[in-house]
Amino acid sequence: MPRDLLADRNTLDGMSQLTRDTKEPASSSPPEDSIPAPSYSPTVYVEERFKKMKDVHPFAQLLNSEDLDDCDWVEHAAFDPIEAASREKLEYRLRTCGELCSGLFTSGYPTSSGSLGSVIKTRNFPSIDSSDADRKRVLLGHVIATKSSAKVVTDDAMDYPKDWQTKYQFTPSIGHNEDGETVCIHSLCIHPDFQGKGLGRILLKSYVQRIKDSGVAKRIALICRDKYVVFYEKAGFSKIGPSKCQYGGGNWVDMVMDFEGGMSDDDADF
Ligand SMILES: CC(C)(COP(=O)(O)OP(=O)(O)OC[C@H]1O[C@@H](n2cnc3c(N)ncnc32)[C@H](O)[C@@H]1OP(=O)(O)O)[C@@H](O)C(=O)NCCC(=O)NCCS
Q1: Quick check: is 7 in a domain?
Q2: Among 9-18, 127-136, 147-156, where is mean pLDDT lowest?
Q3: What is the CATH number of the domain that holds 195?
Q4: Where is the composition biased (Basic and acidic residues) (predicted)?
């Protein structure tokens, strides 16, 4: 497990046994995928949710073009069609700046049956078990990003040069800019079967830590819908205000995490 996930793992390991586990026979536990949140006290529900994440044994790794099929699949499973990046755009980003992209993976079954098994079945992965040396890593979610010279995400940063395979430029006016000081997150998503288990939070946390520690940028910027503002604020991002991006129909909010100090609303015009 990468070092940046160890703290979360230690926290999980330190958690007390669940009330359900200690007071009820195991056979009366609900199926893993149908834990009914409303019937639990908030404390027990949170513990159940974290127990499920722990069972998945997630690990983060850099992405590259070999992950294109998986990223394309997860992207289109998680996002509305109007928001999902096209396969061509994903390929551009993975090939030109895979070092800015992270995947959250698992490599085994959390239980003998359950949603991970169905994911593997759907994806036509070969049968795997703990003794199978050829077992595949399974993508649960990803962060896809590029760099930009602007301080917030722009439509130009969201786009990509259509001739990049024949005329690659290091600092194009659209797409990934090698000299840019802002990492622009274009996709953060978790496979729908695994949402609500804390994986999005842990993927974002590990990603932010890696980018910050690497020193490749002065800030991370993204655009999100209103409903996700609190999620990103809890991760350390600041709400700048309405974004000018028209991508996916517009109506986005600019969020920024500045590693060198805050930025004002005026900076969003940069
Ligand atoms: C957004 C996303 C990555 C979050 O990942 P996740 O694993 O489901 O989220 P987590 O379980 O880590 O939850 C983290 C927090 O986000 C909140 N959250 C998750 N999904 C949410 C939603 N749809 N609306 C509002 N808040 C949400 C949770 O309540 C949780 O808060 P808490 O810790 O205070 O309870 C995931 O839901 C997803 O892939 N969504 C579809 C793609 C998308 O829209 N991505 C956002 C692009 S801006």
Answers
A1: no
A2: 9-18
A3: 3.40.630.30
A4: 1-11
User: How far does residue 252's CA lie from ligand 1's centre (Å)?
Assistant: 16
Quick: pLDDT tens for 39-94: 334 334 444 544 555 566 788 999 999 999 989 999 999 999 999 999 999 999 99
- Write the DSSP string, 117-172: HHHHHHTTPPP--TT-TTPPPEEEEEEEEEEESSSS--HHHHS--TTTTTS--SS-
| Test site for ligand 1: of 205, 208, 231, 251, most ligand atoms within 8 A of the Cβ | 231
- What per-residue confidence (pLDDT) applies to 262? 52
What does each C-alpha distance from 239 to 181, 229, 245 come to in angstroms? 19, 7, 15
For the chain, the domain total comes to 1
pLDDT digits (tens, 9 = 90+) for 206-251: 999 999 999 999 999 999 999 999 999 999 999 999 999 999 999 9
Report the separation in Å between the CA atom of 225 and the middle of ligand 1, taken as the mean of its atom positions: 11
Give percent of the chain with pLDDT exceeding 90: 54
**pLDDT for the residue 58:** 81
- The answer to whether residues 52 and 111 touch, using CB atoms and an 8 Å cutoff, is no
Q: What is the 231 CA–ligand 1 centroid distance (Å)? A: 7
Structural domain for 132, as ranges: 59-269
- Tell which atom from ligand 1 comes closest to the C-alpha of 195: 8
Q: Which residues line ligand 1 (CB under 6 A)?
A: 78-79, 188-190, 195-201, 224, 227-228, 231
| Helix-, strand-, coil-residue percentages of the chain, each rounded to 5 | 45, 15, 40
Ligand 1 centroid to residue 189 C-alpha, Å = 8
Residue 136: inside a domain: yes
Residue 83 in domain: yes
